[in-house]
Amino acid sequence: MNFQFSEEAEALRDEARKFLAAESGREKARAVMNGDATHDAALWSRIAELGWTGLRIPEAHGGLGLSVLELCVLAEEVGRALSPVPFTSSVLMATELLMASGHEATQAAWLPKLADGSAIGTVAWMEGDATRPDGTPKLSCSGDRLTGAKLPVADGLAADFAIVTARGEAGALVIALVDLSATGVSRSACDTVDLVRKSAKIVFSDAPCTVLARADEAERLRARHLQGTAVLLAFEGLGSADAAMEMAVDYAKERVAFGRRIGGYQAVKHRCADMYIKNQLARSHAYYGAWALLTGAPELALAAAGARVAAIDALQFAAEENVQLHGGIGFTWESDCQFFYRRGRLLALNLGSRTFWSDQLVRALEQRNTDLAA
Amino acid sequence: MNFQFSEEAEALRDEARKFLAAESGREKARAVMNGDATHDAALWSRIAELGWTGLRIPEAHGGLGLSVLELCVLAEEVGRALSPVPFTSSVLMATELLMASGHEATQAAWLPKLADGSAIGTVAWMEGDATRPDGTPKLSCSGDRLTGAKLPVADGLAADFAIVTARGEAGALVIALVDLSATGVSRSACDTVDLVRKSAKIVFSDAPCTVLARADEAERLRARHLQGTAVLLAFEGLGSADAAMEMAVDYAKERVAFGRRIGGYQAVKHRCADMYIKNQLARSHAYYGAWALLTGAPELALAAAGARVAAIDALQFAAEENVQLHGGIGFTWESDCQFFYRRGRLLALNLGSRTFWSDQLVRALEQRNTDLAA
Amino acid sequence: MDFEDTAEEAAYRTAVREWLAANAAEYKTPYEGDVDLVVRGKAWQAKKYAAGYVGITWPKALGGQGGTPMQQIIFNQEESKYWVPAGIYAIGLGMCIPTVFTHGRPEIIQRYVPVAMKGEEIWCQLFSEPAAGSDLAGIRTKAERDGDGWVINGQKVWTSGAHRADYGIIVTRTDPTQPKHKGLTMFIINMRAPGVEVRPIKQMAGASEFNEVFFTDVRIADDHRLGDVGDGWRVSLTTLMNERLAVGGKPTNSPDAHSLIELARAIDAEEGNMLEQSHVRQKIADVYIQDRGISLTRMRTMSAISSGRTPGPESSISKVVVAKLMQDMGSFAGDMAESAGLLVGEDASSLPHLDALRQGYFWSAGLRIAGGTDEILRNIIAERVLGLPGDIRPDKSVPFNELHKVVS
Amino acid sequence: MDFEDTAEEAAYRTAVREWLAANAAEYKTPYEGDVDLVVRGKAWQAKKYAAGYVGITWPKALGGQGGTPMQQIIFNQEESKYWVPAGIYAIGLGMCIPTVFTHGRPEIIQRYVPVAMKGEEIWCQLFSEPAAGSDLAGIRTKAERDGDGWVINGQKVWTSGAHRADYGIIVTRTDPTQPKHKGLTMFIINMRAPGVEVRPIKQMAGASEFNEVFFTDVRIADDHRLGDVGDGWRVSLTTLMNERLAVGGKPTNSPDAHSLIELARAIDAEEGNMLEQSHVRQKIADVYIQDRGISLTRMRTMSAISSGRTPGPESSISKVVVAKLMQDMGSFAGDMAESAGLLVGEDASSLPHLDALRQGYFWSAGLRIAGGTDEILRNIIAERVLGLPGDIRPDKSVPFNELHKVVS
Q1: Which residue range forms the structural domain that includes residue C191?
Q2: Does residue C265 share a domain with residue C236?
Q3: How far is D179 from chain C (nearest CA, A)?
Q4: Would residue C406 count as lying in a domain?
Q5: Per-residue pLDDT tens for C26-73?
Q6: Buried b (16+ CB within 10 A) or exposed e, B101-129
Q7: Neighbours, chain D (3 or more CB pairs < 8 A)
Q8: Is residue C25 part of a domain?
Q9: Are C271 and C203 contained in the same domain?
Q10: Does D394 touch chain C (CB under 8 A)?
Q11: Interchain proximity D281–C280, CB inside 8 Å
């Protein structure tokens, strides 16, 4: 029984947490929120120097070639720090999807730049409507040309390329990579509930792209990408949820009302206990997802859905009750509470809602029942 | 604005509460639970003497001819006392359904006996499976003969007649009254989660019955009966919920742990506040239901569903947390907590679940939207 | 049982409706011009005052109408059908002026009450402080005797409308050697006086409805004291009793079960639309039970008022239910809308009610706190309504300036 | 990351499996004969003892195996695949005997421990009292000196297995003039001694798993004292530390998400079956997140044990999650089953898992209380894990016999 991270991964966590505590305090997130920059470029450079941008990229392409477990550790720590860098979009999503695509020419073109941080990628599947992540996109792909729009695209203003989902011939799914500096691509800022992670609306007018996968192959690639991303974003959410809980607990230990620290009131302390419970459940499900991702186990569909739903629940609860425990001050612009409150909404919706994933979860349970019966 | 009971109705409430407090303490419920009697016959006689059994029955048939508002008041008070008498089955359900049927001959035969308490009626629509109250029964009605079974039938052992739902020619709904002493009727005790309100399984083998309504008329009668009963049972549940809350609050004021009365701990006091909140919401919805029932307002479908769902929620919460607040003693056979815990389940399922009624509620909201648009 | 007015109420309602039809026609639609809210507000208040619709329940001796609470409710109901600029007087006439005329000296009442009723002066309420939120008696703002008057130093926070207020009522600590509820004193303060500085507080959702107010050597004459020296806690209860009534419900036109129905119907599901999904229907029913349950509860309260009885404690449940409900509705609506639930501003989705529901997700986080947190309200219900024991209060009999010694 | 045994663990597991296959074949299916549980239990315990599967982690000097916690876990896992009658020793060997060998005199250890390990004597734990539940230190049962020994008078409650126990450990009050946590003393008591009377407690759901035990002038020799006079609270912590581990999870084979899936699939809906209803699917996902989340959390704990580390506090969440979850699952299953959810006994529905889920609705009400209520467990998580302040304790330093004066 070894349902825990290796000592090496835990060492990476310690290093990452120290680095981010020193270099990525929440004032960095605030600066990006209040400013015009798409992200904290200096911090991003430091992160690239540490090799985090190329953590999973093969050494042949300039990366460290480490396992997905190390990536989970970093996802959690970056989530904990709310670092205003395109780590989720570029490292957790675009890099992983590009590597999974098996499209060697494109990998050779972009992976080295991703590894050294000189390029930023993103994944653009949303189209501003209420479709779910497994739906058919409206963006059309004819030959190697894209026409339509994607929004919101996280880090879409900072990104050098986007991997998009599109509708190809006969309505078949296409997954394609677009150089965002190409002709026919125009971008504008697009506001979302999360003010730290800047998003874009990207409009494609007969824009050139490289098709990475089509039809059944694209469906398989997307399904696998959704599951893998669900696990990685669960770690990110878990990190944020733990940070929100710690913020609430710290305040409850300091704030005095009616002659007592408010953490002594059961209404407050039991709420904190409930945060802890939800975060622990989320952690256990996230670990299960990491194991399934690492081993390619058939349980991945179930584990990924469980990790995502538990992480969404944990972060939303911690974020809402963190404001509540802070009282009036927690509702101000100057308080850090809003970062978690907003991030909670972002993580709840940026890869399909908890409703979507709960349904996926039950599908996986049904499937497992069928497998057991067969 | 007069969204409250009349002074006359409140006077009846005071009288009823005093009478039941004196004559129907919870030890009466316990005696019936632990004994073989189907109900407390002495208490039932006293209730009949007070005229409660004929409250709504026209004076021509020996009743008091009062309004449904007075019946709501009594439903609440009998629910509060957990009186072990067939009030719900006979007065709230069978009498009301018989009166609504418009079947004068049958009314002439039974209403006087119902009024003076010499006859007990019940309504039998459940068939032991998971069908909903608006489903098609399996009990078959051919001509004036019934074949099949109904279970559980509340107070089915004590009842003199049952009004049943059945499947008639071409699958059309039939509502019929059966004299339970007739040939072809056999009854046996049938255990349910509620140990105070005794139930029966009733088997019909070509048993004679009087058809009260068929097909569309029966559907209308059933729909109206379900809505009216939903309101009346909401009052019953509200009475039980208030009694459970009061039991919990009284205990929380007495029980000492760690040097304080446990009602001083926020975990306990806030739970009591939540009971109060749910009970107040349930009361408001029940009153709305009473108003709709009284006035025959088109809002009845909505108000009845709201009353039922709110009452189920209130009683279940109060019943569960009443056990919890009592600690170990609340989980014993000797504690009265179990009455509410069991009654909560009974009232949640004896007329269609909260799921069924939530769906009905949204249908009514959709309908109202349509009406407003038209 | 009915939902009808009594004959007297119906007559009053008719009169109000006719007056509004004649005088409020310009407010039939939201205002789209660029005249200052204060200017528009003053004009409307003057009209109301002239017609006898200000201080409806107040004694005639004070310039009020000596009317019934039901008349006030009827006027509010009818007025709320228009987009009138009445909000800037809510705190002043709802909370401050009743405190002034209950505890002020005759010449002070004469000076301030009629002017406030006409709308010529706007008031704010200066109670909360950074270290005194739920525990209001923990305030630190000092008032020190100086000759015939007083000198104020300190800071208030969460002061609605301080930036446009002419006067405020302020609770101060005049004797820190007394236990916290003793040693407080209430004053009327001139918000334009030297040493008063108002700074807006930007909220999480971006708006600035509240302010911080700083006081540096602000002078107040002793005749502007409300109640006795050291009696400020009791005086403040007059104000707070009125606040609980004011902060009760949700804003008019905020989302309800029908908003979710229309949103759900507009979103495609695998088959049909989201309104056909049973989890959506169950949630809508939950919302209806709570939201409609609160409005029906309010009708019970109004019935009691209408029949001249004292309302029961049932109205205490309103805010604690509504605030959390709005938060839950907001996140549920977002989940239904999937990625569209993320969008704000120019690119926001046009799905019906989605924007209002998302905004509700943000302001409900504040509503759960303002005017008594969820936790304080549950304490109040448990203690005052159900009679359960109060929290243990280590601070009750300790001198204020030694409180730090007892904190556990 | 893997879920595999280490090489050592695998070897141990193989040996256990082989031994069980050879010795526990008769327990492959539930027992249907009429031999007394105690008789069957003693036979099985004797076999385990002879084979070295009792006291796996205990010191060899005590007759234990000096093994690792992981070996104990592996044995438990494998043994739980059979319907063995092992439950009657759970409290004695899990809680009482560790207290005896930690705090007893050598000759007492010698007298009781080996016999208990062989299963020849059965033990119970006599702690809770009517006025001492969550607040265990509130016990009133008296032990008074009488010559060389002690005389016990009082009442215990919630004593599992008292009716079949030969011995028990009992915490008593020896000095009521001391504050409540002082003045307690622990003893070994002979449950067959004169003056001991055991009465079963019938539970809400009908079963009688617990007892009341009354003590009237029961004599105990002083050498049966565990720990010093007045040190009973500290001694009891040894026992309670083990209880929290024992009462942690839900019973084997209790309902889970798959039970709801199978039940839902068996119930017709308007179209198809209930498993296609989205509200059912959402609920099943909720159940899975909690139920599977707890079992995954247990794996994290076991991984720590397996790698020789101290488990973190994560296991503290188990019971508080599982108990309420079972209650919620029970009512949800009933709702799905509509009227079939009412039926019990002979006429009960044959819908899959419905009966177990309904029973779970009843026993979960007890599980939320037993071994630490939901409220106590949340206090423990908040205070011990998160470091939040404890409740104010007016009773801490007051003499026990003056406690009534401070109750608030």
Answers
A1: 123-245
A2: no
A3: 20
A4: no
A5: 999 999 999 999 999 999 999 999 999 999 999 999 999 999 989 998
A6: bebeebbebbbbbbbbbebbbbbbbbbbb
A7: A, B, C
A8: yes
A9: no
A10: yes
A11: no
